[in-house]
Amino acid sequence: MKYDIVLAGVGGQGGLSVSVVIARAAMAAGLRVKQSEVHGMSQRGGEVLAHLRLGEAEPASPIIPMGAASLILAFEPLEALRYLKWLSPTGTVAASITPIRNIASYPDIGTVLADIRGLPNSILVDAESIGREAGNVRAANIALVGAVSALLPIAPEFLETAIREVFAAKGEKTVALNLRAFSEGRKVRATGR
Amino acid sequence: METIQLLGDEAIARGAIDSGIHAAYGYPGTPSTEIMEHIMETAPKGVTASWCSNEKTAYEAALGSSFAGVRSIVTMKCVGLNVAADPFMNSSVVKIGGGLVVAVADDPGMHSSQNEQDSRFFADFGKIPCLEPADQQEAYDMVREAFDLSERFHVPVMVRVVTRLAHARAGIVARPPRERNVPKKCDSPRDWILMPMNAKRRWHALLSIQGELLAASEESASNRLEKGDCRIGVVTTGLARAYYDENAPDLPAKPARLHIGSYPVPEGKLRALASMVDSILVIEEGSPFVERRLRGILPQSIPILGKLSGALPPEGELNPENVRAALGLPALKLIEAKTLPPPSRPPQLCQGCPHADTYTALNLALAGYEEPVVMSDIGCYTLGALPPYDAIESCVDMGASIGMARGIADAGLGPSVAVIGDSTFYHSGMTPLVDAVSSKANITLVILDNGAVAMTGCQETILPGGALRAVVEGLGVDPAHVRVIEPLPKNLEANAAVFREEVAYGGLSVVIAVRECLESARRGRKS
Known about the structure:
The structure holds two protein chains of two kinds.
Chain A: E1 2-10, H1 15-28, E2 32-37, E3 47-55, E4 69-74, H2 77-82, E5 87-96, H3 109-117, E6 122-125, H4 127-134, H5 140-148, H6 156-167, H7 172-191
Parallel strand pairs in A: 1-4, 4-5, 5-6
Antiparallel strand pairs in A: 1-3, 2-3
Helix pairs in contact in A: 1-6, 4-5, 4-7, 5-7, 6-7
Chain B: E1 3-7, H1 8-18, E2 21-26, H2 33-42, E3 48-51, H3 55-67, E4 71-77, H4 78-83, H5 85-91, E5 100-106, H6 120-125, E6 130-131, H7 136-153, E7 157-162, H8 163-166, E8 168-173, H9 196-208, H10 210-219, E9 224-226, E10 232-237, H11 240-247, E11 256-260, E12 262-263, H12 267-274, E13 279-283, H13 289-295, E14 304-305, H14 320-326, H15 354-366, E15 373-375, H16 400-410, E16 416-421, H17 422-428, H18 430-438, E17 443-449, E18 452-453, E19 459-460, H19 468-474, E20 482-485, H20 492-504, E21 509-514, H21 518-523
């Protein structure tokens, strides 16, 4: 079993903590994990990309081969389109619908979302609203993880435990609202919200 | 022992701690920064872990540890080794006492560096061993091995990693730590006094152990030769192995294979590989270091393929795709989708960044001049080269802005301005400022004092913010032309007026823009 995930977002969105949550859960579930992260200059509002590779055996390459990713998890819709070369023809794109317009040339958001909908397998999530309703808009990332949890080769209990562990240092309130966002996110796929 | 998930950089840090280091020194630089940060966060009591003014001072502190008989590691990025080149090249001539490991993180692909220099050439230049891990476990193990080699052969040992190893996480298993050495002054200072009579003797000693270093590399378990079931040979070095292993299951037949993780280049094992095959493909991250050795100048008995032959791209990183193509495998099938091409999203200064206010005021002050010249340096503020600021015209090496501005003024162009960050100034800006004082250079130096090494993750500047006026005046700049401003939108006109006055002055002037980095303030100075 191999499961490769491209995580895409904009610097400052906190995408790397999602990578940590999924990686912890995967390890608790007995999988081997290799994570690749972008550090340094790209973090200042630029494109942020992380590769997360899960497998029964330790994945060899730190970066995912083009055409191999099972999932692109995009915290921003335009970023969902940037790394399509990495997606397997049978893979899924899951994206938050809220744009971050920190560039003048940001295209029409309707076109961006239509392009994502036009892909063979895609999930669009109003993650920001779920996060806000759960108690903090920053929980949007975890709502998105909830929305794809049925696709991941990890039981949701492991993800919940990892959320508890990763956010524990920030207090019980933060843990609780992220768990709520995760649980609400899980309903998205069923209802097609 | 349990498996722990670590960045390649963190695995190096853990390896150093478990090797019984007394000290770690370095200067932040992507992709090496997390080595020191992890040592600072996790080292036991009694271990000194310290950022230094620059890589040279860091290296020299580590040399002091070695003279005192204790182990130390010095960390830097690829171009940082240029700054430390003087102590580095001479540290193989002295007789190393306590183990000294230099951990260098190269940046092929130039994610955040000015070039793709390959530090293996430096190890070869300095005639010292270099270990090159292929994964996080090896990063840990090789640091431990490097300390052993250093104390066995009395030379520094390099551990070289690249971005994709430094910044990738995987599981490692640690081994029981070693005891630290008891500090003891070197009992043969003659081996450290490199005046010609001693240096010649030490140089001879370094040359005479080269055969032993090669023998150790030939025997190293890190250099593994495997037979294949076809007449093709593959050499991988360091991280290149990961890209080979990713694709190897798809190969129709198993090539004969030499993996190199330990240098000097194991010549005997390369000859043994060549005797089994009809051609050799060399896959290495960085420069064609091994490939060039193999090819030489005279006719070859078998074809050597790699970056020089065009089988692999001569620039940029290796990746699963270009290694796959070099192995003759067809590309994986990609998704067919017609979507808009996403415009790129370049990194930019944070909203409200003090550098933005400084650049806006400087641009305003220089607007009346026909051909102002603004040299700059390396840090977040280099982003001032991009719109909407378009405020600077150079970024070459740490501290270069000041010397370059002086050269431009000497050539008769101007007004000539240099813009440098506080940490870059302490790193390499003070000596060119002394030159500017001595030559009465007609330049205006702008020092951006945000109290942080922001680009690499907000490490604190070596001296706290606000200390620069005294430093600059102490170096001999006329106090009447040392001005301090606070870069805020409300001060725009007043700050532009200060720049106008100092640019018009006609001699050496320094404007220090003091305001804390926003990101650093947000993090609450956690480092």
